[in-house]
Amino acid sequence: MWTLPSKLGEYLGDPKLTRQTQGIFSPLSSDEVIWALADAGHFFPSEYMGLESVENIFNANTDITKFDDFNNFQKVKTLESTFSYMANLKSIKLPTNIESIGAEAFNGCTSLETIYVGCDSVPQLAQDAFESLPENFSILVPNKLCKLYREKWAQYAEHINPNKMEFLDDIEVPDGIDTIHTIDIDGTEHYYDLNGRELPGKPERGIYIHNGKKYISK
To answer: 3-class SS at 78?
Structure first.
């Protein structure tokens, strides 16, 4: 059973639903993303996580400011005009299977400050693909591929930097970690160590769990 992130706290705080809430989760961390998908006729996580294209779903959306959950749409390989005129979008994390980014993919994204790209193969990038972005925007890529990205995306080499917050696939998470809810109804975010103990805040170094995923901060 799933719900909107903003509603998750209501279920967790209801004493009548204490046992039932163990199975309640939010598939994405943004109400606005879920509503955009619903408006396009995609209501269930099992459906929209399997989409091969998200064209005409998010265009001109001004409600979404952070879209790191886009990393979960692993079947999407091509971005055409996918995020055009999302004027309030500030950060996005691309799926690792992206193969090409078109000239209109981020057209009009005048607030986009950070793009996370975790692809092991550098995607094909259209000329002037990031021309609408703010002057000081950043493209964060895998540490070991930073030089290659700068060579392949030479037009934007000065904006490309190694990502110090890389997702780890090879660390086993202890049983029960996936039942930890990391976003409160008021938007407060929580961070945990690999033993499930809550941390006082986002750690500057080391491995931690946030929103059901493992990260390392170097």
So the answer is: strand
Express each pLDDT in 180-192 by its tens digit: 444 444 456 777 7
pLDDT at 193 over 90: no
pLDDT digits (tens, 9 = 90+) for 95-138: 999 999 999 999 999 999 999 999 999 999 999 999 999 999 99
95-112 b/e with 16+ CB inside 10 Å = b? bebbeebbebbbbbbebb
pLDDT of residue 94: 97
2 pLDDT tier (thresholds 50, 70, 90): low
Q: Strands, E, within the chain: which ranges? A: 66-67, 78-79, 91-94, 100-101, 114-117, 124-125, 138-141, 160-162, 165-167, 191-192, 198-199, 206-210, 213-217
In the 8-state DSSP scheme, what is residue 148? H
Burial of 79 (0-12, 13-18, 19+ CB in 10 A): buried
CB of 120 closer than 8 Å to CB of 94: no
- pTM higher than the cut 0.85: no
Q: What's the angle, vertex CA 173, arms to CA 170 and CA 177, rounded to 5?
A: 150
Cα(207)–Cα(213) distance, integer angstroms: 11
Cβ atoms 31, 49 nearer than 8 A: no
Q: For residue 18, how far is the Cα from the chain centroid?
A: 29
Report phi then psi at 148, rounded to 5: -65, -45
